[in-house]
Amino acid sequence: MQLLFDFLPVIAFFVAYKLADIFVATGVIIVATVLQVAIHWLRTRRVNPMHMVSAVLILVFGGITLALRDAVFIMWKPTIVNWLFAVAFVTSQLSLFGGRPLVERLMNLSEEKIELAPALWRRLNLVWVGYFLLMGAANLAVFHYFDEATWVNFKLFGMLGLTLAFIVGQGFWIAARTRDQGAATP
Questions:
Q1: Is residue 96 over pLDDT 70?
Q2: How many CB atoms lie within 10 A of CB 32?
Q3: What domain range is 51 assigned to?
Q4: Which of 5-9, 64-68, 75-79, 129-133 is predicted least confidently?
Q5: Distance CA 129, CA 178 (A)
Q6: What's the CA gap between 110 and 120, in Å, rounded?
Q7: I need a labelling partner for 56 at 20 to 30 A (CA). Which of 7, 15, 73, 75 fits?
Q8: Spatial distance between the Cα atoms of 176 and 94, rounded to a whole number of angstroms
Q9: If you average pLDDT over every residue of the chain, what do you get?
Q10: Is the whole-model pTM more than 0.90?
């Protein structure tokens, strides 16, 4: 359910694009993202940092797209977001920032905690860094070498599909590691 909520602005963007054009879709994603942040805040009284980063970048790049009537700016946004997340995840491992990988902090926000050895959390965190770098590069490749409609389809189906596959794979990886740790302790 959370994944659907996270991708709701992208889905709204896709629908608006299919019904109108990239500029209407850009306006829709701006509104949808602001609503997403507001709804999350009303439900939890917290702002999701990933939603906030995305919202700020959508406001900036979407605003430039609408002001200049040039779609290239909104097309850059997924790459910038993914690469900023990669930087955040890699720097989270530095002792200056607490030394706990960001992936560990995010996955243990709920009451049900995931227990992994520190080395495994660091490894998983680096896998997320690689994933974000790859997704940013994939977005660049699609918007540079394909037409706008293909990019819009990739933004929804390609990025969502790859994210789902990545999360499922990560779930299996974590499950195997937590079983291994549980079997190793008496």
A1: no
A2: 18
A3: 2-184
A4: 5-9
A5: 22
A6: 19
A7: 15
A8: 27
A9: 90
A10: no
